[in-house]
Amino acid sequence: MIARIPAGLLVTALLVAGCGSGGGGQSAPGAPKVGLITKTETNPFFVKMKEGAQKSAQANGLELMSAAGRFDGDNASQITAIENMVAAGVKGILITPSDTKAIVPAIRKARDAGVLVIALDTPTDPQDATDALFATDNLKAGELIGRYARAAMAGRPARIATLDLAPGITVGKLRHDGFLKGYGIQDDDPSVVCSQDTRGDQAKGQTAMENCLQKAPGINVVYTINEPAALGAYTALKAKGRDKDVLIVSVDGGCTGTKAVQSGQIAATSQQYPLKMAEDGVKAVAEFARTGKKATGYTDTGVTLITDRAVPGVEAKDTAFGLANCWG
């Protein structure tokens, strides 16, 4: 039975033509289809991911369908997008899951229908619910900024705030755990004086930092799940006159965040590469369409520590490199 596409999804699941050889910007008739489902359409990270998917689909003679949640955490829209893409006959689906557990049954149905499903950026829970994962090593990304923060503190006692993502999202847990590992502590360490969820949102990051400062005014190290949350934290710290004496570290490597490192608002960030995730994912679907060979396992798409204040023992690149490789 062919699923009907709800009218609302026609806005978010628009068919974007890929380009076959000599296609003049249009895919050849009957070209294999690949689907891309991101968490939102507005986050620059996912805008760059879609750009990479479009470029790779064009280069590999595929037709791209894209969809996104209405907001970060919108599992229902992602489920509907999967169902509609399967009904449209896609060979493969690339997805950044909003709810890493709740999306698994829909992914299982797609795989049972013969569709290759690859997670980008965020692994499902369990990770093997998809055929493959193309992503940053988020544990390593967190570990890099944790090692950096510890070295930058140079033995001074730390009072740490962690501004996290949300419960049950693997990418948030991996980055958080990586930071603690890099710093050489655990969640119950007394140096962690406040933890708040931000959903990676700048306004929520500011509120979370304000709450933490009320609870523990002496905070001097702030870990953030991403750069929007970091900039929210910086705004709150600046309002209290604390922007010069608190070390903020983050993950993402977007252009706005990298410029914030350059200006000193953020001390260091772990840069990831969404363009590469999408390009490699589409290539894997093209290979599957041609040969039936499925991508499997985890492919690390790279992470680089970006800072202009390097510390001994922690490998890093400066913001000139970061700006040459940023997104957004």
Describe the protein.
The chain is an alpha/beta fold and 328 residues long. It folds into two domains: 9-136 and 273-295, Rossmann fold, CATH 3.40.50; 138-271 and 305-324, 3-Layer(aba) Sandwich (Rossmann fold), CATH 3.40.50.2300. 40% of the residues lie in helices and 18% in strands. The longest helix is centred in the C-terminal third of the chain and has 18 residues, at 274-291. Its main location: other.
List the helices and strands and how they pair.
Layout: H1 9-12, E1 15-16, E2 33-38, H2 44-59, E3 63-68, H3 75-87, E4 92-95, H4 104-112, E5 116-120, E6 132-135, H5 138-153, E7 160-164, H6 170-183, E8 192-197, H7 202-215, E9 221-224, H8 227-239, E10 247-252, H9 255-263, E11 268-271, H10 274-291, E12 297-300, E13 304-306, H11 319-324
Parallel strand pairs: 2-3, 2-4, 4-5, 5-6, 6-12, 7-8, 7-9, 9-10, 10-11
Antiparallel strand pairs: 1-3, 11-13
From the structure above, extract its key features.
328 residues, alpha/beta, Rossmann fold, 2 domains, seven-stranded mixed β-sheet, six-stranded mixed β-sheet, 11 helices, 13 strands, 18% strand, elongated, disordered N terminus
Concise description?
This protein has helices at residues 9-12, 44-59, 75-87, 104-112, 138-153, 170-183, 202-215, 227-239, 255-263, 274-291, 319-324, and strands at 15-16, 33-38, 63-68, 92-95, 116-120, 132-135, 160-164, 192-197, 221-224, 247-252, 268-271, 297-300, 304-306. It folds into 2 domains: 9-136 and 273-295, Response regulator (Rossmann fold, 3-Layer(aba) Sandwich), CATH 3.40.50.2300; 138-271 and 305-324, Rossmann fold (3-Layer(aba) Sandwich), CATH 3.40.50.2300.
